[in-house]
């Protein structure tokens, strides 16, 4: 379960600058016009391949609506005086979910906002910058009314009323998808983009049980159904003997005949089926002369063939304007500033004082010391891969790394500095002036001084964005690189992580943080119910995001951090109270705060015990140890 935090905040100093496009259509309007590369036919051409795809999806949407009208809605209207036909309801519900999976590749790609109301997470969506909250809706909201045993609707009149209300809302949203789909205009390039993103979605969400938390038996059949949905559009682009057919059908067979949800070998599926399928789709697209949207700015590059490609991610997406993009001179300047105490008020502390490269940019302390001898409220997080988060800090209050830098430097407990005074001091050093000139070659035409607060912030942010490290032993193995090996225990641990232990439904693959795939544009937060210390039944009092928004669902909500380099970043949790991974794994195994008997009214972590054995947890730790990649982190 999730608290989705849609973050549209921008750097206040940059509000007048033009914004950049994102990862495909992120609103529900017509698809964006294609870029300058060849994109093939369009839906505007009668009889074209995109036009035929559009007609097929229209038929599938009509089928989904008919299922709701004829099979799901009627039993939902059963009078309260009569027994509810629960078996019929569940069968109809499963049919509707499978039917939605037929349209998911295109609904999620072209109409993500409405799709969230059809099959989004069953928690309110929060627009933090406006402190607004929107009620959850859709299939995942209906699921807990029907599952598990005993089903709430079987004995609870209020639940029966809620079921009918939610089914009616679901019908309304599917009808909205139909109307929006009629307005879509797109090209061959959009079709291939949507199909490849669906393969990524299956890996990151589908096989993990993200949208089937209470009915895991449906997880793999639904993943198979959505891969089956790729066949109809691909038939327009492939010869009957094309090898891609064999790869797609082999992937479907792997999902169709597993032992069960818990025993499914997800590592084998990703390596032998999903990754080759992604590569084959991209290769066929290029064979047809249909270029991917390589010039479009996205956090996940459009030309990436698999979810785990070494160069798949672009942290510059999270800047607000091209003039702030990373270049080698900025990185070098930012590295120098990062280690220079000139940015602090008393000249005795640098960024590296707490974010130590030799400790994976943490400090090994539960809580860092303040300048006045106390301690900060929260644990120091790693900066490795921080560039691939849509917002910063445990409470997600900073929309960019530039904002983060300014916040820390001005904080009287952390650095108690002034960017304006620091800029003045740096402007008096010829070495720094030369570095700023190389890092910002266009600055000569700008009205502000060369060495300015925002350029200090941007240089620091560029250095942090350069700390993208996705070449761990796990990455090399899952990509199938020659000579890469993982132990059997680590492979079992990955299968638990992405399966029965449910880790990957919050710490999403491949980043293992809360940046939601496959668009990677939203950051998520969770309410875990972390105690003040291990063994206590008292909830840590830190209000988390609630302190900023005053929205009740965000009370005690904290950013879902990356698990990469977790072997080096102890102690753990926002309060730094868990000193070992074994303690953390046990906390989750017990069901978080609620499972430990702590009163957490809004916990988003499912409170059910995972029933992991000691061997299971040892295997999971073995997997987590394979996520270490600190290449080049020691400061010269």
Automatic annotation (TrEMBL):
Keyword Oxidoreductase set for record: yes
InterPro entries noted in UniProt: Cyt_c-like_dom (IPR009056), Cyt_c-like_dom_sf (IPR036909), Cytochrome_c_Peroxidase/MauG (IPR051395), Di-haem_cyt_c_peroxidsae (IPR004852), Imelysin_sf (IPR038352)
Coiled-coil residue spans: none
Extent of the signal sequence: none
A Pfam family assignment: CCP_MauG
Keywords, in A-Z order: Heme, Iron, Metal-binding, Oxidoreductase, Peroxidase, Signal
UniProt entry tagged with the keyword Iron: yes
Residue ranges of the region described as Disordered: 26-53
GO molecular function: cytochrome-c peroxidase activity; electron transfer activity; heme binding; metal ion binding
Cytochrome c domain location: 329-467, 488-628
Assigned GO CC terms: cell envelope
Location of the protein in the cell: Cell envelope
Listed Low complexity bias regions: 29-47
Classification via PANTHER family: BLL6722 PROTEIN, CYTOCHROME C PEROXIDASE-RELATED
Protein name: Cytochrome c peroxidase
Organism phylogeny: Bacteria, Pseudomonadati, Bacteroidota, Cytophagia, Cytophagales
């Amino acid at each position: 379960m999730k608290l989705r935090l849609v973050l549209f905040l921008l750097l206040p100093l940059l509000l007048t600058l033009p914004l950049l496009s994102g990862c495909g259509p992120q609103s529900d309007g017509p698809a964006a016009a294609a870029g300058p590369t060849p994109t093939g036919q369009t839906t505007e051409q009668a009889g074209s391949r995109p036009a035929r795809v559009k007609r097929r999806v229209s038929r599938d949407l009509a089928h989904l609506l008919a299922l709701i009208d004829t099979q799901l809605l009627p039993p939902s209207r059963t009078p309260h005086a009569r027994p509810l036909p629960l078996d019929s309801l569940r069968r109809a519900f499963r049919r509707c979910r499978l039917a939605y999976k037929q349209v998911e590749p295109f609904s999620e790609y072209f109409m993500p906002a409405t799709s969230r109301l059809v099959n989004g997470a069953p928690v309110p969506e929060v627009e933090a910058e406006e402190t607004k909250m929107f009620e959850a809706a859709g299939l995942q909201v209906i699921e807990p009314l029907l599952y598990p045993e005993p089903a709430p609707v079987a004995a609870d009149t209020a639940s029966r009323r809620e079921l009918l209300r939610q089914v009616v809302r679901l019908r309304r949203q599917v009808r909205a998808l139909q109307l929006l789909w009629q307005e879509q205009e797109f090209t061959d390039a959009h079709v291939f983009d949507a199909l490849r993103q669906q393969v990524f979605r299956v890996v990151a969400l589908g096989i993990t049980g993200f949208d089937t938390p209470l009915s895991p038996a449906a997880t793999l059949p639904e993943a198979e159904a959505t891969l089956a949905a790729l066949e109809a559009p691909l038939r327009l682009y492939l010869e009957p003997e094309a090898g891609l057919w064999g790869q797609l059908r082999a992937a479907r067979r792997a999902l169709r005949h597993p032992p069960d949800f818990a025993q499914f070998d997800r590592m084998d599926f990703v390596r032998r089926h999903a990754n080759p399928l992604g590569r084959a789709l991209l290769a066929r697209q290029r064979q047809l002369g249909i270029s991917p949207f390589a010039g479009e700015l996205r956090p996940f590059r459009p030309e990436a063939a698999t979810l785990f490609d070494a160069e798949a991610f672009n942290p510059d997406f999270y800047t607000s304007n091209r003039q702030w993009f990373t270049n080698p001179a900025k990185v070098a300047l930012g590295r120098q500033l990062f280690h220079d105490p000139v940015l602090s008020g008393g000249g005795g502390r640098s960024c590296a004082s707490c974010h130590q490269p030799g400790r994976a940019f943490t400090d090994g302390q539960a809580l860092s010391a303040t300048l006045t001898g106390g301690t900060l409220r929260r644990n120091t997080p790693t900066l490795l891969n921080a560039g691939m988060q849509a917002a910063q800090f445990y409470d997600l209050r900073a929309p960019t790394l530039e904002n983060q830098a300014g916040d820390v430097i001005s904080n009287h407990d952390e650095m108690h500095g002034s960017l304006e005074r620091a800029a003045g001091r740096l402007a008096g050093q010829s070495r720094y002036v030369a570095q700023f000139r190389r890092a910002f070659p266009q600055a000569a035409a700008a009205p502000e001084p060369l060495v300015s607060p925002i350029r200090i912030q941007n240089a620091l942010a560029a250095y942090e964005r350069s700390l993208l490290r996705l070449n761990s032993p796990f990455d090399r193995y899952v990509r199938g690189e020659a000579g890469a090996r993982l132990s059997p225990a680590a492979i079992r641990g990955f299968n638990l992580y992405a399966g029965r232990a449910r880790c990957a439904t919050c710490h999403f693959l491949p980043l293992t943080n809360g940046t939601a795939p496959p668009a990677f544009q939203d950051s998520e937060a969770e309410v875990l119910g972390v105690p003040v210390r291990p063994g206590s039944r008292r909830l840590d009092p830190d209000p988390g995001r609630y302190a900023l928004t005053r929205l009740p669902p965000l009370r005690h909500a904290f950013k879902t951090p990356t698990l990469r380099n977790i072997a080096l970043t102890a102690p753990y949790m926002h309060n730094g109270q868990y000193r070992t991974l074994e303690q953390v794994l046990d906390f989750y195994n017990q069901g978080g705060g609620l499972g430990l008997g702590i009163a957490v009214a809004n916990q988003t972590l499912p409170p059910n015990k995972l029933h992991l054995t000691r061997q299971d947890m040892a295997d999971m730790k073995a997997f987590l140890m394979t996520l270490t990649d600190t290449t080049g982190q020691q400061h010269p």
